[in-house]
Amino acid sequence: MTRALIIVDVQLDFCEGGSLAVEGGSAVAAGVTAHVAAHGGEYAAIVATADWHIDPGDHWSDEPDFVDSWPVHCEAETAGAEFRPELAGALDHVQAVFRKGQYAAAYSGFEGSTEVDGSPVGLADWLRQRDVTGVDVVGIATDHCVRATALDAVANGLEATVLLDLTAGVAPESTEAAVEAMRASGVTLRQST
């Protein structure tokens, strides 16, 4: 099996001190860097996803419900959209960044694209072009973008594993629901060891 690592949304706004902070986000950034240092050579590809909002409509709200609407976060070209500094070691090995959500809500990394020879290429096609058949998914948040990315990986015919100790969830209840949804869809859930 040819595997890729997908690092989901380890951005400043989703970590401590950010506009939509998830507790444990900065620890995830450091953990992912350590994982790449130890296991990076086992992956055929390492990619990252990033929220990159320009005008995402009602995804942003001054009175967010934290289900479909959220405080302003990861605005394109702002500091909040940058990756956590603790992720720097892993980013040295990232071959492509898939930006998502420019003009709409986007939770799954498979909604994102990167530029190849001046044209946008989606994550599924990019992985297919490299004969990737399985992915490990890490990042933020377990109950939102990690969940959506893992479920879309399975929907795209990939074997998907979420390394739970390298993710951070928003809340215990929604994280547990996400874990159950992923398990029910055939996603493997384990520790990174």
UniProtKB/TrEMBL annotation:
KW Iron (keyword) present: no
Keyword annotations: Hydrolase, Metal-binding, Pyridine nucleotide biosynthesis
Pathway noted in the entry: Cofactor biosynthesis; nicotinate biosynthesis; nicotinate from nicotinamide: step 1/1
Keyword Phosphoprotein in annotation: no
EC number: 3.5.1.19
Annotated Isochorismatase-like domain residues: 4-190
Family matches, as SUPFAM superfamilies: Isochorismatase-like hydrolases
A GO term for molecular function: nicotinamidase activity
Residue ranges crossing the lipid bilayer per the database entry: none
Matching InterPro entries: Isochorismatase-like_dom, Isochorismatase-like_sf, Isochorismatase_Nicotinamidase
Gene Ontology biological process: pyridine nucleotide biosynthetic process
Family label: Belongs to the isochorismatase family.
Protein name: nicotinamidase
Source organism per UniProt: Ornithinimicrobium ciconiae
